[in-house]
Design goal:
0% strand, single chain, 259 residues, mainly alpha
Length: 259
């Protein structure tokens, strides 16, 4: 057996071993109720810190890492319904969302400003590839994926592009929601724009969530648009780098055929 085959075989064995360990841990977590305990700890940490920026960024970082690895950890990083209900009741009482008790709640920041096109702000990736991409296969793939991603269903891009386990997209996938959260946080904290507090159904276009959840506030829509534009600039150099790699691969294939 040649060294390359041995290395590949060892890698496959390590992957299988890691998957088995994760499955065993997942079974133990579910059977012992550890998931509910961890969820309670996370939500308590967010509430006790009055939804300060650092805990929110930490949760977003962990969520992005888990999504990038294809691990569904929504049971840990789900929203605090208590904060949503408090904000909604206060907004209904004063007939305006600016009176939100927790304007910088994790659910508000994440769903309206850090989840445009799904985890990792993938709507920005699609826009960048469609504008500057020269690879027709990728452009065709993302053209078909644009509609579900626009409505916040990112699975076609995560698996088909793909994003999962692609090292070149790890940094922008994690960085985009963090940066957009940092941008949106002071606008909500200091009531520069009203906090999105009204419930919005799943499947609503990510770019319109903040607009609808504030009862049609234009400045909040512009803030969400700003977050999308910033994410496009974050993805831009990484998309260019991948395009260069693809061109090099195609050049090698063409040269091999000429020989």
């Amino acid at each position: 057996m040649c060294p390359k085959i041995r290395i590949k075989f060892a890698i496959y064995l390590c992957i299988i071993f890691c998957v088995l360990i994760l499955k065993i841990l997942n079974f133990e977590i579910d059977s012992n109720g550890i998931n509910a305990h961890l969820h309670s700890i996370i939500q308590t940490a967010l509430t006790d810190n009055h939804y300060s920026l650092i805990p929110v960024l930490l949760i977003l970082f962990l969520r992005s890492i888990s999504k990038f690895m294809g691990i569904n950890a929504d049971f840990l990083f789900s929203f605090s319904t208590r904060a949503q209900l408090v904000n909604l009741n206060r907004a209904l009482k004063f007939a305006h969302p600016v009176a939100a008790v927790h304007p910088t709640a994790y659910s508000t920041l994440y769903s309206c400003f850090a989840h445009l096109g799904g985890d990792g702000m993938l709507l920005a990736l699609i826009i960048v590839v469609l504008i500057i991409g020269k690879n027709q296969h990728l452009k065709r793939l993302l053209t078909w994926s644009f509609i579900p991603t626009f409505f916040n269903f990112s699975e076609p891009v995560m698996v088909g592009f793909p994003i999962m386990y692609m090292p070149i997209y790890l940094i922008p996938f994690i960085m985009s929601p963090l940066v957009t959260t940092v941008i949106a946080y002071p606008f909500l904290k200091y009531n520069i724009v009203p906090a999105p507090v009204y419930p919005v159904p799943n499947g609503t276009p990510g770019l319109l969530k903040a607009f609808i959840a504030t009862g049609g506030n234009i400045p909040t829509l512009l803030l969400a648009l700003l977050c999308l534009v910033v994410s496009c600039f974050i993805y831009l150099p990484f998309v260019k780098a991948e395009m260069r790699l693809i061109n090099l691969e195609h050049a090698k294939i063409r040269s091999s055929f000429k020989r």
